[in-house]
Amino acid sequence: MSDPASRFPEYADLLARVSAGAAERERLCVDPHEQLEMVRKSGLTALTLDESLGGPGGTVVDLMTFVTDLAEADPIVAHILRSHYLQPQMVRRLPPGPVRDRWASAIAAGQVFGNATSERDGALGTAQYATRLLPCEEGWRLTGAKYYSTGTAFADWVMVVAHLDDRRIARINVPLDRPGVAVRDDWDGIGQHRTGTGTTSFTDVLVTEDDIVQVTDPDRHRVASEVPLMQLYLQALIAGILRSVVTDARELLAGRTRTFDHAPAATPTEDPVLLATVGRLASTAYAVESLVLAAAADIDAAYASERAGAADPDLFARASLSAAQVKVHADEVGLAAAAALFDVGGASAASRARNLDRHWRNIRTLTLHNPASYKAIAVGDLLVNSAALPANGYF
Q1: Binning pLDDT at 50, 70 and 90, where does residue 3 land?
Q2: What share of the chain is helix, strand, coil (3-state, %, to 5)?
Q3: String of DSSP letters for 139-207
């Protein structure tokens, strides 16, 4: 699949329907349940599920193309699905059998997965997470609390990361309606504020063997990783938002009839200062999108080595470096572009009814998922001192 639109005939119509009213929904804090349902019904939530598992077999390039398109239509809807697209990659690695078939069927049917990973206060003792699975007669009981659970308030399932013992970490899928699961949509961020991000708590939730998707040992180095994909996803969101910045800048300038008597042109649409601003915004959007797709191709190359039977550590390291470098650049130019949008308009551009500040607020919130400054240091240390990138959830 070279282009998601070629596989999904209603692709353009879906994006148009999701886009309709997006700025007003954001301004009024309206949850995009209807829009998420549109994406679910389209089949695009299964975009990267392997053909052998009942999906269309889309690549990471296909996914980033779709995420950019969807973020242009509504970055809130696009962000809700970030953790969901981790699932097809994890399911692909499961051994053939009923467990893999169960999760592949759920993805193919359009069921949506959220996440429950981050913990606000950190873990205790030698454990990485305070959330734990305690053995019981039926299997295990899950107890703990998670924060920043993006997408979970809209999901059918939530992937929970918890300790199976003092060393091993389990990733389990739990249905949102299972007794003991409670979701509070309490995220109050300045941007991306209707993404279903909040607190998810688990009180003696029953977990069986079938619910476990993956068990990892932090002491064992693992070459293949979904971290570059999950990190690059955020930059694809920024790429889509920057497209909207360009569209709004063009429309803002085209709609202006007045200018200043000391301006270099009599009409705003002929003003070289304003035209140059729009040109720079368009160039920034193009560059960020191109970088995202280039890094996506590097991630695809790493996955291809794994599918061939031998995950290449050099290719996965390259994928991590590519995603990190895109973030360092996209964060800086994205924020600058979202602010420069206002240079194209007059004072009316600051009207709350226009809601043009949503682009900056959304980009600023996305950049805060991890600091670009630390990533720049890691990239520089790699290039100058041959220091490996940190082996954590940010690289």
Answers
A1: confident
A2: 55, 10, 35
A3: EEEEEEEE---TTGGG-SEEEEEEESSSS-EEEEEEETTSTTEEEE-----SSSTTS--SEEEEEEEEE
CB distance 144 to 202 below 8 Å: yes
Residue 299 pLDDT: 98
- Of 93, 111, 129, which marks where a domain is finished? 111
Joined tokens for residue 356: 């043009």
Radius of gyration (C-alpha) of the chain in whole angstroms: 22
pLDDT computed for residue 341 by the predictor: 98
Residue 304 corresponds to which amino acid? A
Task: Say if residue 106 is in the same domain as residue 135.
Answer: no
Containing structural domain, residue 87: 4-111
Average the pLDDT over 325-354 and give the result.
96
Of the candidates 367, 356, 379, the residue with the CA atom closest to the CA atom of residue 26: 356
Instruction: Clarify whether residues 67 and 154 are in a common domain.
Output: no
Q: Give the CATH number, domain containing residue 368.
A: 1.20.140.10
Q: Which amino acid is at 88?
A: P
**Distance, C-alpha 334 to centroid of its chain:** 16
| The total number of structural domains that make up the chain | 3
How does pLDDT run across 110-148, given as a tens digit for each residue? 999 999 999 986 544 446 899 999 999 999 999 999 999
From the list 281, 387, 392, 358, the residue with the least C-alpha distance to 79 is 358
> What are the Cα distances from residue 163, in Å, to 113, 171, 175, 208, 211?
20, 9, 19, 15, 14
Distance separating alpha carbons of residues 292 and 239, to the nearest angstrom:
8
* 51, 151, 178, 387 from 227: Cα distances, Å: 23, 18, 28, 19
Which two tokens mark 237?
Answer: 């969101």
Enter the tokens of residue 345: 């308009």
Please check whether residues 148 and 235 belong to one and the same domain.
Answer: no
Same-domain pairing of 359 and 231: yes
- The predicted-structure confidence for 59-108, as pLDDT tens digits, reads as follows 999 999 999 999 999 999 999 999 999 999 999 999 999 999 999 999 99
Q: In terms of domains, do 348 and 379 share one?
A: yes
**Cα(66)–Cα(70) distance, rounded to whole angstroms?**
6
Residue type, 71: A
pLDDT band at 31 (very low <50, low <70, confident <90, very high): very high
DSSP H or E stretch at residue 255: none
Which residues are CB-contacts of 177 (< 8 A; sequence separation ≥ 6)? Answer: none
Contact 196, 114 (CB under 8 A): yes
| The pair of three-digit structure tokens given for residue 148, joined into one six-digit string | 């920043």
